Amino acid sequence: MKTEIKNVTPESLREAKNFINAGEVVAIPTETVYGLGGNAFNDEAVKKIFTVKGRPNDNPLIAHVHSGYDLSKIIDYDPPYAKKLRDAFLPGPLTLVYPSTGKVSPFVSCGLNTLAVRIPSHDGAQAFLRAVDIPIVAPSANLSKHVSPTSAEHVYEDFQGKIPLILDGGTCVGGIESTVCDVTGEIPVILRPGLITKEMIAEVVGACEEYTPDFQSGERVKSPGVLYKHYAPRCETALFAAGAWTDALEKAKAAAKEKRVAILCESELVGTFQVLGVTVLDLGRTATEMANRLYGALREAEGLCELLIAIEPKARGGVMTGVLNRLQKACISTDIPHGKR
Ligand code: AMP
Ligand code: MG
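A: This is the predicted complex of the input protein with adenosine monophosphate.
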């Protein structure tokens, strides 16, 4: 199959719509990362997404809709505080998990009685979602476990020859996946941190919790995505705490004698590592800048080095929670073995 990359135009949107109606999957830009989209009502299209990505079949998908879409078509209950969150943050990088059964293909939520719904703000995503006027499930357009894509070229690297069309909407401004927030209970619970932070949500609705999975409890985890290795570059990685940058320096010096090494750190430390003569990838100064650059830097690292040494940024809280979550997963996560879930 030939994979075409096309700018978002009335013609490419028509083409994308035809592919979607034929049960195909196409890649679409959003403000967070690129998504691999398919018709949420079509079992075969949904199954194709799992196959093409190599995604574990118990990791549910997010349905994307345009801002005028009638949510009652796909959810069972809309708590009043969820409306407040939509008014405050959507369209934007926030996914809400609602009670929902039997409204879209059963393969979307992998047997959970909830549905994750997102209204992206990216103009190209909105234009595409308006054109198709159905919910589109769109996980990140990367091979499962690999670094998420923030450009059409990243998508092409992973899916060349496997999907017919990539709509090119430029480099993603957000850079990390949406905040996933469960709105099925009394108060919102963040299942995956992102650019819409716990603090921002609490300010709008008075309270917000963060979910920490308990793998020992025997209960099914609320956000199955946490069970899997994620975001990993195809090179060896080592992650150091912010305070341990001198250890990172020693490790880099020793390793550079044997292999190609790259360093990933916040701007403040770049000068410190540049003395080694190895490549230093600058993550940026602010948390939003780091979110924007992280995946691009991880993909760049795989082409540059055999060992990536990453140093955690110093700051904590807010958007940094999401950045750290992705950086830690990229460098040290593994699949949680079935016996331990
Ligand atoms: P991705 O589409 O690759 O960004 O991943 C989607 C994320 O949303 C994963 O972490 C899923 O576990 C999570 N997710 C999707 N649907 C649900 C749901 N119904 N309940 C809880 N988490 C969900
Ligand atoms: Mg993903």
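DSSP finds ten helices and 15 strands in the chain. Residues 139-140, 148 surround magnesium ion (ligand 2) (CB under 6 Å).
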